[in-house]
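Usage

Read records sequentially. Each one opens with the input sequence:
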Amino acid sequence: MQSLVNTWTTNELAMCDRYDAWTSMLNETYGRWEVPRPDKPDFFGTVKGYDDTVVKVIDCICDPCAAKRTRANVMADGRENLTIQLVLQGREFVDFNDEQITLQRGDLLIWDSTKPMTFSVQERLHKISVILPLQRFRSWLPQSWFSIRHFIDGHSNSGLLLANHIESLSTSVFHGGCKDDYALIDATIGVLVNALDIKDADDPKPLRVTQLYHTKQYIMANIRDPSLSPARIAKAGGMSLRYLHWLFKSTNETVNRYIFHQRLDLCARDLLNPHMKYRKIADIAFCWGFSDATHFSKRFKQQYGLSPRPFREEMLSLPSNGTDKLTASERQWRNEYTQ
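and closes with the structure output:
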């Protein structure tokens, strides 16, 4: 089984290759950045990271360097993350979302991957970063997550609590002490919200509810793609395939059946739409992600009791006072497209 903890250092590289390797590591660890070359080739950097695709914990030491994250870099990243950074040693200047922040020992920086950013390390820096799914933080503060303050004094009472939590968390995950990443995420966000001292923080929805909601949103956004699969959905959501199936247990429906039923419903809606009455049934099926017209027709009949063509003809030919023969959902669809 592959270890979730990996260590990387420039000490194992030739001096001429160190900064290029650091640039690659920076992009792999923290998202996409544009990194200018330094004046001197000598560079020291070391990264120890825990990464299970849901949460990352990074312990990093590096020499003075700089980088910027442009809007193009933001758009190129596939995931939206929230990063909590604790400075253990050194000094760093950050410009995040037009906010200039100077960080020294004990200070904390909160930033998310949706906005441009620049940083400049001015002396050897040692920091710990915890990288969490931004969507979970949004579920705690849906009305105010984007307007939080991004600098927290680690010497204040609430800041010290957060700093101690970050240090303890890193020690724990690097030594195999993390048993439940999702509990860890909520515990960390809870301590963060306390440090931010937001008076009107909203009560969070249960994690499972939030994740299921966002997963269904992703499915519907990609429902037309015939290659949509549980494996792809799990990867996009930063979760294991096993966890994805667990999410759907509460719905009494598997992931594949949910996708299948959504596609059938969308096809039925188009078949009930009088503006589409001349559109080929196979085209409608292919439009909503079915790849075999015969299979679609068979499964449609199992679901609605009629094959697609007689379903369309019967439903569209019914007078407005003849809808008592329909189910509630069929009546709703028909009314939607015949009003």
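Summary fields computed downstream for this record:
- The first strand starts at residue 5 and ends at 9.
- The chain has a mean pLDDT of 86.
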